[in-house]
Amino acid sequence: MAMASSSSTSYKEYEIRKRNPNPKVAALLVIDMQNYFAAMAKPILQNLLTTIRLCRRASIPVIFTRHSHKSPSDYGMLDEWWNGDLIFDGTPESQLIPELDRRPHQDHVVDKNTYSAFRGTGLEDYLKERGVQEVIVTGVMTNLCCETTAREAFVRGFRVFFSTDATATSDEELHEATLKNLAYGFAYLVDCNRLDQAL
């Protein structure tokens, strides 16, 4: 008998591993919540702000990433892939959206120029120097920078938690595909409710 698929629950059949973050060794990664991505970022903003608040309550450090390019030498494959539609450093599109609860003297910002928040950024050393062993991934885009960062965190030895309701991308099918893949092989899935109970 064929099973009807439900876009809101389809990833749950792969979510067979459950665990809560350990606040003593966790960090929250807020990926690329920039003006360029405002249209897809705004719908998850309240869930993201809730996630940030819950992490701050548990003394989990908050790290923001910002994607931008400074010169053709750092375009990599993105220039070809996106037909030159890139985010350039110093433009309004490159700035983090103003509604974020970012605390400049407390929160670290990682500048990056590819999908991974780890490649060429020093993020791994920054986390390890602070005893971080787990990352909670939030932000945009679910299937590009969030997923790539989560996968790379996993292969670098970090335990990964991935938010289902504080990540977003261009359509629900892509979002669901990432949640399936990560639940299957890379990350524990969390949402605001689970974090509220766990932290």
Structure description:
By secondary structure, this protein is α/β, with parallel strands linked by helices. It has seven helices and six strands, in the order βααβαβαβαβαβα. The chain has helices at residues 38-41, 45-57, 78-81, 123-129, 142-155, 172-185, 192-198, and strands at 26-31, 62-67, 108-112, 134-140, 159-168, 188-190. Helix 5 runs parallel beside helix 6 (172-185). Residues 1-7 have low confidence and may be disordered.
Keywords:
single chain; 199 residues; alpha/beta; 6-stranded parallel beta sheet; 6 strands
From the alpha carbons, calculate the radius of gyration and give it in angstroms.
16 Å
* Oligomeric composition of the shown chains: single chain
Strand composition percent: 15-25%
The largest beta-sheet arranges its strands as 3-2-1-4-5-6
Helix- and strand-based class? Answer: alpha/beta
H/E element sequence: EHHEHEHEHEHEH
What's the topology here?
Blueprint: E1 26-31, H1 38-41, H2 45-57, E2 62-67, H3 78-81, E3 108-112, H4 123-129, E4 134-140, H5 142-155, E5 159-168, H6 172-185, E6 188-190, H7 192-198
Parallel strand pairs: 1-2, 1-4, 2-3, 4-5, 5-6
